[in-house]
Amino acid sequence: MKIEKISSSVSLKRSIDQGNEQQREAVLSILETVKREGDAALRAYTEKFDSVTIPTLLVSDEEKKAAYEEVDEQMLAIIREAADNIRDYHVRMVQQSWMVTKEDGTMLGQKVTPLDAVGVYVPGGLAAYPSSVLMNVIPAQVAGVERIVMVSPPQKNGKLPAGVIVAAAELGVEEIYKVGGAQAIAALAYGTETIQPVDKIVGPGNIFVALAKREVFGLVDIDSIAGPSEIVVLADETAYANEVAADLLSQAEHDARASSVLVTPSMELAEAVALEVEEQTSRLPRKEIVEASIRDYGAIYVTKTMAEAIDAVNSLAPEHLEVVTENPMEILGRIKHAGAIFLGRYSSEPVGDYFAGPNHVLPTNGTAKFSSPLSVDTFVKKSSIISYSQKALEENAHKIAAFARLEGLEAHARAVESRFKKDTN
Questions:
Q1: How far is it, in rounded angstroms, from Cα 47 to Cα 55?
Q2: Calpha distance 182→212 (Å, rounded)
Q3: Is 121 labelled as part of a ligand binding site?
Q4: Which of 91, 203, 237, 387 has its CA 20 to 30 A from that of 128?
């Protein structure tokens, strides 16, 4: 793992993968074909890209029953406990509509309304992600979304992973479809004979899913354009090198483009972590993926001081940030940009991925500088409420009309003044 001495002025942010023109053209073709041909296009693309024929898109009750038979009771209990933790955390975010009344009779407020229908994309491919089901569906349910549609690419056997089906069934998701890729995004945005369109699409996927979400944005809302996973560990000399290395590798095994970075003022720790990463990588099942990730996107940055290390972390604005220092709470106040912050030795990043409760759908590629984790707020919209009394309008009509005329909008001014002109008819 590369070790580099830096100052806080060094920029560490990676660029967002925008895809190439060939990929974009392929996505546009898929979107247009699904829009035109519906279910037939979904089946054709599933056969082409996933090498499987799907007679029916909807996961049947029989498939759900079979999935439960594959998941043992202990694992089912863990899924249920994780779901409880996630729900308990997100319930605390719920915002209520509100209204205030002034002495002149003016009423102002905000109405919070859940979205009608949401599509959840659960990635497949190299791994199964029941945790993504929990993290995307539960906040939508807490927000009050009535219709939640889940899509996920099928395995070679034509089925979804048992854990994914069970996680969705535990949450009461009825619409679970065996379709992935850009074609699934098209189905959610435009609708087909089987899949009715939704208002918002959430959930991470590969570059084709990301590009498809970008293209349909505006017709529907999306959560974000998610990049590869990333972790930054901010550590001092009190950290254990083997534990820091293990945490870095926990993200590297996600994807060859995942980023794992250590920032520390301790050269001794940096050298020890580099050795540990090399040794632990040799024993991992996903060794080739990890090696590519560490080679291309892994780094250890050594600063002169902890203050410089903190500045570097804020420059990175990482998806996941672990603070493994002697007094992590003292540092928390100086952290400005991170999707999720894990404090202390026992708050390893996978704790947040699966079980603690906060959402693991987080801003990537430095977007934590202006974005937040997926939450209940993701699944609601807010309407302003304005109610003026006669007295309030009488007192303010001339001010409103003057403002309208300042902008050259005479009809705006007359609309307000019309309330106080006598009827000449």
A1: 11
A2: 5
A3: yes
A4: 91
pTM assigned to the model: 0.92
With H, G, I as helix, E, B as strand and everything else as coil, classify residue 403: helix
CA atoms within 13 A on the CB side of 175: 19
Q: Is 320 a catalytic residue?
A: yes
Q: Which of 175, 253, 319, 322 is catalytic?
A: 319
Residues 271-320: pLDDT tens digits? Answer: 999 999 999 999 999 999 999 999 999 999 999 999 999 999 999 999 99
Does 224 carry a binding-site annotation? Answer: no
Query: Which band of pLDDT confidence, cut at 50, 70 and 90, is reported for residue 18?
Result: low
The first and second tokens of residue 225, run together, are 């354009």
Q: Is 254 annotated as a binding residue?
A: yes
The structure tokens listed for 106 are: 């003016």
Query: Which domains occur in the chain, in start order?
Result: 21-222 (3.40.50.1980), 227-346 (3.40.50.1980), 388-420 (no CATH)
Catalytic residue (choose from 90, 320, 337, 360)? 320
Query: 394 catalytic, yes or no?
Result: no
